[in-house]
Amino acid sequence: MSNSKDIKLVDAPPGVEGSGFFATQLDTVVGMARANSLWPLPFATSCCGIEFMATMASHYDVARFGSERMSFSPRQADMLLVMGTIAKKMAPILRQVYEQMAEPRWVIAVGACASSGGVFDTYSVLQGIDKVIPVDVYVPGCPPRPEQILDGIMRLQDIVRSESVRRRNSPEYQELMASYNIT
Amino acid sequence: MALETSVIEEKLTDKFGDKVTGYIQLKDIFSFEVDSASMADVMGFLKQDPLLRFNFLTDVCGVHYPDNSIDRQFAVVYHMHNWYDNVRIRFKCFLNGEQPEIETATNHFLSANWQERETYDFYGIIFKGHPQLKRILNMDEMVSFPMRKEFPLEDGGRTDKDDRFFGRKPDNVNNN
Amino acid sequence: MSDLLLPPEHRYAKMIEQRQNEDGSELSILNLGPTHPATHGIFQNILLMDGERIVDGEGTVGYIHRAFEKIAENRPFYQITPLTDRMNYCSSPINNMGWWMTLEKVLDIEVPKRVQYLRVIVMELARIADHIICNSVLGVDTGALTGFLYVFQYREKIYEIYEEICGARLTTNMGRIGGFERDWSPATFKKINDFLEDFPKVWQEFENLLMRNRIFMDRTIDVGPISAEKAISYGFTGPNLRAAGIDYDVRVMQPYSSYEDFEFDIPVGKSGDTYDRFCVRSAEVWESLKIIKQAMDKLPEGPFHANVPDYYLPPKEDVYNNMEALIYHFKIVMGEIPVPKTEVYHAVEGGNGELGFYLITDGSRTPFRLHFRRPCFIYYQAFNDMVRGQMLSDAIATLSSLNVIAGELDA
């Protein structure tokens, strides 16, 4: 077992502390809980998926960021990691996977292909997954190094931490979903 | 090398005459042309003949020659390999540009199945007698045959890239 | 219209109805993929099931079709290497080197012995990395995660060696026409030596974890077998063919890059089942280590690239200070290199089998036609034949042991 003093705990959000109580905003508590327990759904299609394998294996260990459990079922995942080229044939499937995820859901586009189509500016490749689903974080690289993928996850944690609990009901969000024809 | 290319040439000329032509040694592979109507016979002969024994179909692929005359615009290229004597050969069958049709090789080699489907998918070459000739890599709904030279690499209908940043004519941005 | 042309689910719906009327059996359709976690990449198999048993199946591929061959017709020769990286991304240096050798065959370039040996070293490292992934993931699919977590640390070591050579980890884009972009640094050789020292112990332990493991053997022996005749007819090459008992290996049949200088065995299996495929890959790792050791011992001194100024980029300091070098640099980068009009086929032994490059040039700056013989694509069509009559969980193990790489499958 590792030395317990090496374990870094998440700092408590700002709030009022007294003997036997701690008062803070609900948003920050929920955000903290969500950000440190993001269950990833690896949607690995090609090269970036191999780098993700390295990310989740022993050397880089994505579990350190609260993503211990790979969720291969979209129903029980918070964060969709799209890694690799998405061909036009694949796009409807990706969209279906996204629709199956429960709110709140976040998406990271890992690598150049998922972000923009990358070098494959061809008849068969979707030019970026943001054509079919909304994306929260883009990770550049072809493929990105595991450190970059981890950095992408940390950036997403920042977003999650500061997200209002009401965001998913806001008209802006509804509008965003409507622009993708997702109900 | 136990099996000389002259032997291959001789045997093929004896059996098929002018159906097999254009013998040439290109780099390390002996190549020739086969009349598309007798492709399956030639392949069967190459495979079964006790001396030739080309037991392995390495590769099947198509080529489009838009500048050739109309009856030679498509080619299907077969690579075969004799593992006993370690000899490779390549032969081409030229096909008509408007009606590219050729017999299937699936009766001789199971591996031809998907390779022919791929060739059909890319070039629209019809393999007669193929058990399941439908698209394999592209979507079934696709109508074009993308590897033909007249079809562009890029997707014509795309609106996602701002052409101003790619040095192209900005036909999808409104820059009034 | 033949039934086979229908989408498989329609065809199977018909069959289900027919069977129900005949003998009252209740078959069902199961969709394996395209996002199934055990398929490692995306391909769909629609299976017709009788309970747990597979009656029939049809694979759909093309979910990451990226049109490599069409791109290749639009890119100068130098810019095609990144495409080959992304084909079999588990062992990209083999693809890179195969492509450079194809070009060298077109241009009749003789490569110095040192380059050939360095290429052998990096290709064998890539083969080890490839087999590490395949075998450890087969362990994962049969329920043993430990081996995967253990050997992946050593795959990182191989990636560190790549980084020393070319700066990239996975998609290496390594080399040039005629050699390497720079000589290998002493640090590279040190890392390789360290790897040669540490890795055998690890691989031995990994083998001990699985090879005589009762559970693993029960899950893999007689699972997804294929006979030698059928394997040849299906165009199998590489470890999957050797597991069926045929000792065909391009490295021996048509040695390239001085493979004839090295002593190594070709491991073969017997029954072509999942266990044999595992053992063949495992043994190949030992052979690769042997080859690397010999290459390191015999590595000759000399230049790290051939003397071909028409094709090999001049050194950077000359480009900045010398007019001719600048012109050559510009011409090569823009792809304006003299290429004869010819056709070649060059094959290398990739991680999964015979990786072939069929190149037709017409003297212009791009290939007229470039076809990749992708071993995965050719042998994956046998999958449904191999799993017919087997249990569903066996299909997963079979698929995993075939090591189908989606990038190579779909091009």
Task: Characterize the structure shown.
The complex is a heterotrimer of chains A (183), B (176) and C (411). Chain A has 183 residues and is of the alpha/beta class. Chain A has a single domain (15-161, 171-179), classed as Rossmann fold. Helices cover 33% and strands 13% of the residues of chain A. Chain A has helices at 26-35, 47-56, 91-100, 111-116, 146-161, 171-179; strands at 16-18, 21-23, 40-44, 79-83, 106-110, 137-139. Chain A has a 4-stranded parallel beta sheet with strand order 3-4-5-6. In chain A, helix 4 (111-116) links the parallel strand 5 and strand 6 (137-139). The longest helix of chain A is centred in the last third of the chain and has 16 residues, at 146-161. The termini of chain A are far apart. The model of chain B is unreliable at 170-176 (pLDDT under 50). Chain B is elongated and about 60 Å long. Chain B has a domain at 5-105: Beta Polymerase, domain 2, CATH 3.30.460. In chain B, strands 1-2-5-4-3 form a 5-stranded mixed beta sheet. Chain B has 176 residues and is of the alpha/beta class. Chain C contains 18 helices and 6 strands. Chain C has helices at residues 8-23, 68-72, 81-85, 92-107, 113-141, 145-166, 186-210, 214-220, 228-233, 238-243, 250-253, 274-298, 316-321, 323-333, 375-380, 383-387, 392-402, 406-410, and strands at residues 28-32, 44-50, 53-60, 343-349, 354-360, 369-373. By secondary structure, chain C is mostly helical. Chain C folds into 2 domains: 3-60, no CATH class; 68-410, Orthogonal Bundle (Cytochrome-c3 Hydrogenase, chain B). At the A-B interface, loops of A face loops of B.
